[in-house]
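**Protein record**
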Amino acid sequence: MDFDIKTIPTGLRLILRGRLTFTENDCFRLMLSAVTAAHAQGGLVMLDLSGIVFIDSAGLGLLLHARDVLRGRDGAVVLAGATGQVERMLALARFGDLFDSAA
C-alpha cells in the first residue's frame, strides 16, 4: 500500500493505493501518524479507497482503527471511492452503518 495526503477545503483527503491487509499494518499506522500530526485540530478526513484493489478483515480493522483515532481528535471520517471487491467487503461488514460515505 502507498498513499498521498492532500489538503481539501474541509480537511484532508488520504488517497490509498494497493492492497489493504495485515501486511500493510505498519505503513497504514505510519500514514495515520502523519495525518494526526498534520491535522491535530480535528475536521474531516476522507479516506479515498478508489486505488485499493483488495482488502481483507485486517484491512477492515485498520479502517476502524483510523476512525477511532480520528474521531478521538474531534474529527469526522468518511469513506469514498470503493469499488469491486473492496466495495463488496465494506457492504458485507456493514461499514455503511459505521462510516459516512462521500461521492
About this structure: The helical segments are 25-38, 57-71, 84-92. Strands lie at 2-8, 11-20, 43-55, 75-80, 100-102. The chain has a mean pLDDT of 90. The radius of gyration is 12 Å.
